[in-house]
Amino acid sequence: MVGLPFYVLKKDDIAFLEEYFSEGRPSDGMGNFITYLFQRSSVHVHILREDPHDIGDLPSYLQAKKIIEGE
User: Fold this and answer.
1) d(C-alpha 33, C-alpha 40), whole Å
2) What pTM does this model have?
């Protein structure tokens, strides 16, 4: 099983993202920013129980819509 990170930031936490990169911190390591943010703000986790849907164009959106609606 593969789990891809999906981050939702609060508006107030955007400043921490700018601060993180301005300090020259790594941008390619999964979880580096969240570790940084955890020390400065509240961080919450939600575990997806189903596979995510990759929606990058209209056909993939329509396919995901069918799956979600049970068609």
Assistant:
1) 11
2) 0.63
